[in-house]
Amino acid sequence: MLAQGDQSSLAQAVTGIQRQFGASDQLVGLIPAAMAVCAGIGAIPVGVLADRAKRTWLLGAVCAVWTAAMGAGALVAGIGAFFATRMIAGAAEGTPPVAISLLSDYFPVRRRAEAMGVYQAGAIAGAFIGLLGGGVAVQLGGWRWAFWIWVPVGAAVAIGYMFVPEPARGRQDATFDAAPGPADAAALAAQGVISLPAADGAPAVRGVSPAAGLVAGGSGAAGTLRALRIPSMWFGTVFLTVSQLLLYGLSFWGVAYFERVHHLGPAAAGALSIVLGAGSAIGILAGGVLADRLLRRGNVNARVLVAAYGSIGATLLLAPAFASTQLLVTAPLLFAGGILLTVPVAPAEALCTDVVPPELRGRAATVRQLVRTASYAGPALIGLLAGVIAPHSPAGLRWAIVAACPLYAVAGLIMLGALRHYPRDMAAVVAHARAELG
Predict the structure, then answer these.
(1) Could you give the CA distance from residue 355 to residue 300 in angstroms, rounded to a whole number?
(2) Ordered domains of the chain (ranges, CATH)
(3) Short-list 389, 413, 392, CA closest to 401
(4) I need a labelling partner for 131 at 20 to 30 A (CA). Which of 170, 196, 224, 245 fits?
């Protein structure tokens, strides 16, 4: 929430920053992309430390750095210093590796997708808070208050993490079949992947030694390389990368689409974009709940199927929504499509976490984050298509978005490739966690 709120507040402060420092559109426009690069770089040490250090204190320390950078950004006297504070804040926003590692150990496996949904919904909440709160703060106090408003919140969060208990690594995975319910290891056994242990035994996984081989080379570089060989993780990573090309593209071009194609003013276009965002908030929460509910009912591949079919369904709604020039047709289809657009996010994030050993989740999440930076090419891709189809024309943007919509369905088809690997990869992690915890 803090990271996305920062981005939205920055958008509200752009005009004031340009007036204060005489900065060009080109320079100011570089800031979000440069921050994204810094976040990827910052995720590398954070991911390594997430597998070795106390994660709650690590998050608190990173949040303290972020808070200091926000305060410094509100005090600077030149554009160079402001740019530097933005890069520090961006690097401090590379926290998904440690956050995902913590969430996987706080929540039972059967609730992991739901937890990931709430975590991802924080970004949507931050965007709304940043747009509304940042807008009010800038209007009342000037552009510097777009950053001042986050300083007390960041300080409270940083201090609060000092008192949050650190969960045991891997315990949730080790007890996957301990709680009541028809799913869990019993469902894995039904697929011939894992055999349930005796009361005092560890599970046997076909072709996998529970105690050795899963984390090759321990916690060093060799162990990380072993994590990179998990098929399910790569299907999930490629799925998220391809699908979010469209997601980032729509986030960037959404307002311009309504202005150019439906001839709405900035306020009305922004309001309709918020409607789409509301649908996205519903979808990101509903996707996790649905996947976990199906898992509890015994469908081991629930996370794969919800992500895949949600993506295909989103394409079927979004393509005609953006193709239409009638707002009464476009708006309801976009709301429903916005729900399906984010339904896959939480199940896919949970899937990528399920199949990685607890000792490697921070570094594996770092690798995934670095790969997924390719998704930021989404806005450029749609812009390129618009220039090819019909330069400087509303029809160009309209049909460029329509042409990009099938990317989501392609991502869904890619995710279906995980069906034959996911139960086995997940069972291996369960076996390893039990062996490690004794």
Answers:
(1) 13
(2) 2-161 (1.20.1250.20), 227-428 (1.20.1250.20)
(3) 389
(4) 245
pLDDT of residue 209: 36
- Choose among 286, 241, 352, 257: nearest CA to 121: 286
Query: Dihedral through CA 347, CA 352, CA 358, CA 363, nearest 10?
Result: -130
- CB contact set of 43 (below 8 Å; sequence gap of 6+): 94, 95, 96, 97, 365, 366, 369, 370
As a whole number of angstroms, the distance between CA 280 and CA 274 comes to 9
Distance CA 194, CA 187 (A): 9
Cα–Cα distance for residue pair 345/151, rounded to 1 Å: 29
pTM score of the predicted model: 0.82
Q: What is the pLDDT of residues 260-310, one digit of tens each?
A: 888 877 567 666 766 677 788 899 999 999 999 998 888 889 999 999 999
d(CA 362, CA 357): 10
pLDDT, tens digit (0-9, with 9 covering 90-100), for 333-351: 988 988 998 999 999 999 9
